[in-house]
């Protein structure tokens, strides 16, 4: 199989973990006789420095023409006081919007060897397997007006959704639930927000189309609490853009580190963008110690969702599992025993595990 993949390394640890994903994908290509052709483009702070724009036109065109896009992370102190249109984050939001990637799938499934890496009690997190589906191109992130008024003393952001935007994300959530345990939790703030009341109405309408799925509504504050006190309660969670952003970082605690979480940003058909959930981690950038697993697992999601390469995706997920079982971990995973390792060393171990066919078939995280 021949595929064109756009790489957007971005800022901070972005380029470091992108190297890991590239090396892993090259190994998969060799092992399975695929040809992955990488095209690297600028986004975020890197693009501001080079092109004075967080999302150059050329980057958008390249992504539109690609079979899939892999993104590292954007952002950093250097650009934090820039005006809104020259912030790295504008590039990330811009590419999601330009490609129409309205659904962000964030699977949260811990690896057995990391059960004790979480500050949460093992018996609470054991067996948890959650898919957060975050609406990605609407809500407070994109509503207008969003501005300061009256000499900067008044401020407004706008939470705006059109019916069809909610319908398509809710449909996606029901479809995902059908492939999993058929339980859907819709998270909103319907006791306060009109947008949430419309969201709830649409969920209830769609529920009759998917009668096999058990649906519940949960207010976002209660959901935040339940996510870490009773994570086993959840299967698929669907929620609007900002709530999904916050809840997914919180849920990463179940896995031991934010550095473990992959994600897929997709639309109904066509190109998908795959990115870890974490940011550019400026506090550790340049040190070669970033956790590459979230990025590597995002590459696996790309193989599965964009290219239909299920076996190859599973092989990566097994190699990650094997690497963790062998004790390799970065410093963000607070493990007492084990082999504290650099990004490069971990990547080499994953590659070694991918090429020696000794990987056990037993346990594996597949991110559906
Ligand atoms: P962050 O996710 O970058 O970091 C939060 C904490 O987690 C830090 O202590 C960091 O060192 C740690 N961490 C995150 N990923 C890690 C990894 N792979 N390995 C080891 N440790 C890891 O969030 P932040 O510090 O709030 O934001 C930093 C910058 O990143 C900001 O500019 C923000 O806007 C941006 N950001 C970008 C994305 C993205 O590009 N998708 C996502 C979130 C934040
Ligand atoms: C994420 C990030 C982004 C978001 C930021 C960097 C704009 O936090 O992907 O979770 O809020 O969507
Ligand atoms: Mn976030």
TrEMBL record:
Source superkingdom: Bacteria
Binding residue positions for Mg(2+): 221, 245, 249
Note on how the cofactor is bound: Binds 1 Mg(2+) or Mn(2+) ion per subunit.
Pathway the protein takes part in: Amino-acid biosynthesis; L-leucine biosynthesis; L-leucine from 3-methyl-2-oxobutanoate: step 3/4
Catalysed reaction equations from the record: (2R,3S)-3-isopropylmalate + NAD(+) = 4-methyl-2-oxopentanoate + CO2 + NADH
Spans traversing the lipid bilayer: none
Subunit structure, interactors included: Homodimer.
Family annotation (NCBIfam families): leuB (TIGR00169)
Protein name, UniProt field: 3-isopropylmalate dehydrogenase
Organism this protein belongs to: Oceanobacillus arenosus
